[in-house]
Amino acid sequence: WEKFGIGIFFIVVTAIITFGIMGLSSFMERLY
Amino acid sequence: MAEKSHDIFPRDPNKTYGLMELVKGTSTGVDKEPEDTIFSWPHLFYVEFLCVLIVTGLLLFASLYFGAPLEEEASRDTTPNPMKAPWYFLGLQEMLVFFDPWIAGVGLPVLIAVGLMLIPFLDVNKKGKGYYTFSERKFAITSYSFGMALWLVLIVIGVWFRGLDWNWYWPWENGHIHKPPATGLEDLPIIFARTLGIGEFAGKALSDLLVLGYFGAGLIIPALYFKEFFKKLGLIRYVTLMGLYLIMIGIPVKVGLRLVFSIKYVVMTPWFKI
Q1: Given B134, B141, B149, which is nearest A17 (Cβ)?
Q2: pLDDT value at position B3?
Q3: What is the rounded average pLDDT of the residues B36-54?
Q4: 3-state secondary structure of B11
Q5: What residues pair up with B268 in beta bridges, in sequence order?
Q6: If DSSP codes are grouped into helix, strand and coil, which group holds residue B263?
Q7: Does the beta-carbon distance from A21 to B259 stay under 8 Å?
Q8: Which residues of A touch B150 (CB under 8 A)?
């Protein structure tokens, strides 16, 4: 289970950062 | 067009005018009149000065409240375990877990640096110059965000999730207890040979075919699906872009294969192993 935990952790953190940067970019566009 | 600009910028009889340069394309200054702009001083500089003050204040308080992470004086008798690089190199050090030193330490960093330099030459989307936009550059920003996230997640793992002997430690685990070394890592060709009951050579051929198929499918399928994209880029740019892209996607795939499925090498050649 720990192995799957590491795999899920990797995917979740990558997704959070990816969508975070995309969201920031989208937010800047709306602000502009 | 000429009459309009003449109205906006009346000719000053005390000055001489000459054509300096002709530039093709539009800029953010097009269709903007002098009444449409404001002076940098004081409007912009006030805000910038305020920012400088706030950041200086934050840094001052941060330096008062957080000590520098210095350790005791180094001794040649005791090497710290684990020996961690500075945080900004931990992404590279973390990659050493998943790839051989030459590939993780030389090959991939060179590919990243060259790939970043190639972006302006591979980018055919002319939109988004001089203004903030996400909706007009979805592919570019999404791709870059993913690569950036990949780099940062490796740093996060290296900083907070690696303990003794570079083993994985969750934050709630005791970091002072040694973990048994990872066992049971197998090469993909051997797994194929064992589970499918085929010879070692056939297993090797199958895993090589799998990797070739990954790159082949990754090059051909997007070209068929996004014909406009392919046409706009042209063959050379498309192959370069997709090659770099597939290598970028391949890194987390390889990380996952090792972490979750205990697979060590996927491709084994006499010169290098991945």
Answers
A1: B149
A2: 47
A3: 85
A4: coil
A5: B273
A6: strand
A7: no
A8: 14
